[in-house]
Design a protein that fits this description.
mainly alpha, 5 helices
């Protein structure tokens, strides 16, 4: 028997999913910053957040409606989503709704003077905690709650501590320089200069 045995196809676990996880990490990692910049660039201090959210909805439509329709049509699958099983339809609609409400919550947090670094740190540390707890409630572990290892609870505490540390010790941006005075001096005499 060889010391270094070659893995067989049955032993090799494909890691393609990791590419999609990294794609999501990058996209969601820049989401808050891009959304904040978009809100500021709208230039409307009263309704800029809502206008930016409208554009986010347009992006969701392009990516989450048109792209899947095209993929399903290319694969020859049914695009008649109204005929999908009701339970799957309801759960998927609920998922989209809470996702959109979460995006609106991010915008409202920015409008309440939350900075992207703090808001997104809290969101991305808090969301996995909520996800883990809801997943356990919906799909209880074999052996019940008592079978959960202490490392799981430690992970939740570390996620919460990480969010607190990032929020508290976030680096502050360079203060904006005051705009130079654009006062015109043409035709104005300086009283300190006597001719």
């Amino acid at each position: 028997m060889e010391l270094l045995e070659r893995p067989t196809a049955a032993k090799v676990r494909p890691m393609n999913w990791l590419i999609y996880v990294l794609l999501t990490v990058v996209c969601w990692g820049v989401y808050g910053i891009f959304l904040h910049n978009g809100t500021l660039a709208i230039g409307d201090p009263v309704n800029g957040r809502i206008k930016a959210f409208l554009i986010v909805g347009l992006a969701y439509f392009l990516v989450a409606v048109l792209a899947p329709l095209a993929i399903l049509m290319v694969k020859g699958s049914s695009v008649a989503f109204w005929a999908y099983p009701a339970r799957g339809f309801r759960w998927s609609l609920l998922a989209g709704t809470v996702g959109a409400i979460g995006a609106l919550g991010v915008l409202l947090a920015f409008g309440a003077k939350g900075t992207p670094a703090v808001v997104m740190s809290l969101v991305f540390a808090g969301a996995p905690i909520v996800n883990a707890l809801v997943a356990i409630v919906l799909h209880p572990p074999a052996g019940g709650w008592g079978s959960i290892k202490p490392q799981f609870y430690l992970g939740i505490l570390l996620a919460a501590a990480g969010a607190a540390l990032v929020s508290y010790y976030k680096p502050n941006p360079v203060p904006a320089k005051p705009a130079p005075a654009a006062a015109s001096t043409a035709g104005v005499t300086n009283p300190s200069i006597r001719g």
